[in-house]
Amino acid sequence: MIDSIDGSPTGLAVGFASTADAHHAVNAQFDVTKSVVITGVLTKVDWRNPHAWFWFDVTQPDGSVVKWGTETVGPNGLRRIGLSDRRLFNIGDTYQVELNPDRSGKPLGFTNAFKFPDGRYVKVGFIDANGNGIAPPDSAAAIAPPAAGGGGG
How much is the mean pLDDT over the chain? Predict the structure, then answer.
């Protein structure tokens, strides 16, 4: 079975985890009072329910690389906000991700927004009942939407 963009097979043991084991309250694992922006090279996408995961290599100031995992809503939720095709995410491209960090300090987070290499900004986390994104926190200014008419990034 192939469940990830990079084509790596996933183990059958994953299939035996119950939805209750995999699904959780976001604020139980992630600190929703904090916002962090990472910039990294996309290495893998796990496009599955109940949550999709995106994996990035993030280069630190000292040149070392830390692998970050960012959780999002599931594939159906991504489709509802216009991310209907996993091919929109290209392995090897650099993205900025605004996220709520893992409470344990591990390099994990709950994704609130992606800034694509072409400058597109897509709000992902904390969608309201009408499917509208909630404005990013002031601390996420580093990945504000591009100016009208602009596309750089």
Answer: 73
